[in-house]
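User: My advisor, Dr. K., asked me to get a structural model of this assembly before our group meeting. I'm new to this, so sorry if the format is off. These are the inputs:
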Amino acid sequence: MAYVVPRPKLTFWERIYLPTIVGGLAITIKHLKQMLTGHTKVVMQYPEEKWDAHMPEHYRGAPTLVTDDKGRERCVACQLCEFICPPRCIAIVPEEIPAESKWAKVEKRPREFDIDMTRCIYCGMCEEVCPEQAIFLRKDYAITGVTRGEMVHHKARLYELGGVFDGLVHKWNPRK
Amino acid sequence: MSFLTSPEFWFLVATSLAKTIFLIFLVVLPMVSYTVYAERRVSALIQDRVGPNRTGMPLTLLGFKHDFSPWLGGLGQPVADAVKFLLKEDFVPGHVNKFYFWLAPCLAMIPSIVTLAAIPFGSEFLGVRMVVADLNVGLLFIFAIASVGVYGIVLAGWSSNSKYPFLGSIRSTSQMISYELGLGLSAVPVLLIAGTTNLSKITSYQVANGWLVAPFTDGRMSLQEILLWIPTGIALVTFTISMFAETNRLPFDLPESETELVAGYHTEYSSMKFALFFLGEYTAMIIGSALTVVLFLGGWHFPFIPDGSQGWIWGLVNIAVFFAKVAALLFLFIWVRWTLPRFRYDQLMRIGWLYLFEIALVNIFIVAGILAFVR
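Assistant: The format is fine. Below is the predicted structure of the whole assembly, which you can bring to the meeting.
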């Protein structure tokens, strides 16, 4: 439907521009003054100030592997995360746990566990699908590297980032 | 021929060279690069941002572990910009007219620098007048040379053989022609009052009789001065507006309006050739401000500061006062740019031909009437 755009009738002072220009200049100089006196809240000066303290609980940072309170790696190399991963950045090589090991009843563990951080999209599906709660998205967001090779997180690096996690899965507790 | 061997001649040559080198390499070029820096910082502050605040010395390039930038606060930015411009590939598109494509940046830069010669930027320093060429037709010289600057833009637009530069240069031509009238006519009241086109004499008139925008700086006010105050104020406003249009600054930056014409007349330029346009534009801004200072704001004079004949230190202070005034006007340029939107093309022409021209013309008659009938 057609409608009429109201055109406001300009007064004489508005039509000669100069008073409105002076008004505009007053607004901009007010902003400049408030910036100089520190009254305006500006963006965080990133490398010096970080927002780590303000990060929400559910923040999805870099995916990491965790060990449980007994120091055992939780991952059982079921490869569900490898299959669910949308950009296919996870590569797992499983191996059998030798019979003389204390955790022989677990049967399987990852020999290699690589996450290619140049491909990771931080979706958190690996964390969601993991039946053993072994992979978690932690709060590391500044993942950098000079080469592509450096951007692939190997198993040792993943455990280093992940650390220990006391969680809900108790099935590897010998008393149960 | 005896003139060529006389010591006065060689003294003149040496002092002129010294003044030229001082002006171009120690004042104007650093001023240009730091105006660009100021432009970025002030625009950031006006828009509640921070701006380039951390460019320091890139010591990591020399093998150190950290860069050094604790108190420089981004003052290294112009140096980094200059290095970037110098090291970038100087790309000449295949479809351009090579000769004029190369000529245009020079024509944009050289006229702005040449006009510096006639600007009296100080009183006297160790007995030497602080003006490179004390021309009797100083103001006309500046207007004449400054209008050559439009050829740089026109040639850039035409030789680029591309539609956006072409549109930009067409706009620039018509804009410059329209506003040169307003510019020249708003300077005429000053010439009527001071009775000369020699810029040094205009300055010394203002030293003796008070600045044209503030006639009380000499401590006396006559009826004639009070009456002249109004038309000189109007002349200052029209002069400044025309100056904005002449230097292609926002609100009149139609020749290079980024939102409509990509980058306007320098779309096809890269590297140092682009930098020359940039430098030329900012040098023109500095010249414009300097001219406004000389014509209306009393040049190097400031109340209670004696001129350079009282000692060399006062000569330096006078130069500093002059460039402080220029810097204040440059801040106005930046401030206005980040406040106002661009005028539409028809509005631009309307302001130039229907308002500025008439106001400046009537103003001349008012000034002439006051000068003739009020003592």
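One thing worth pointing out at the meeting: Strands of chain B lie at 124-125, 128-129.

User: Perfect, thanks a lot.
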